ABC transporter ATP-binding protein (Novosphingobium bradum), 240 residues
Amino acid sequence: MAEGIRIENLIKTYGSGDTAVHALRGVNMSVAKGEVVGLIGPSGSGKSTLLKCLGAVIEPTSGRMTIGDSVIFEDGWRVADLRALRRDLIGFIFQAPYLIPFLDVTDNVALLPMLAGKPNAEARKEARDLLEALDVAHRAAAMPSQLSGGEQQRVAIARALVNRPPVILADEPTAPLDSVRALAVVDLLNTMARQFETAVIVVTHDEKIIPTFGRVYNIREGITIEEFGTHASTHQVTPG
Ligand SMILES: Nc1ncnc2c1ncn2[C@@H]1O[C@H](COP(=O)(O)OP(=O)(O)OP(=O)(O)O)[C@@H](O)[C@H]1O
């Protein structure tokens, strides 16, 4: 499979001198287009820091990141407009759906392309097509407060996909959901990843879904260890 995102020797140090925190100490990771991988690790291991670097929310100290064939970071950002990078190349899914309460479901999904300058009718058509693909089109005219938790998360996934980003970062997307709904969200992420050739990284503590990943990156004290298959759910690494 073609490459979606690659991270090489990524380092992030907060502060400097005696008080420096070495949050990422040389992370290597690659996710193919159409692949969904898990990112797990104990509290304080560096998951959020890695996600923020990948999402161009904070600047890594050094290393290299590529999305497809484009180098986006190599010892400094290689793109001038980080807002456009986040808007066009990366979709975000969070633990809570964070839908806008005063917009209906269609407009929640259509908002991003509208803000990017797409004509409203076209953006709404794209939103409705995605809602269809995510099996929530029958709620297209509803307000977010009228949806179940699982439906809200589907709308949040539609919103993350609407600009067809090559990369999706999902931060604990199943935490508030029961087993059945959590597994349904992972199934959906897998289907969408394949359909739209998106590389998906799911940060999770959720034991219900960890065994479903073909590959997991386990981060320990700022270093990732790659694990495969069901191994991922049982493998124990002694903290260094
Ligand atoms: N802005 C910051 N300034 C200084 N140190 C930070 C900052 N943000 C995080 N850290 C430190 O970097 C290390 C990694 O933190 P990070 O938040 O990435 O871990 P995490 O794996 O996401 O943890 P959790 O699962 O508890 O959210 C920790 O030692 C943390 O205290």
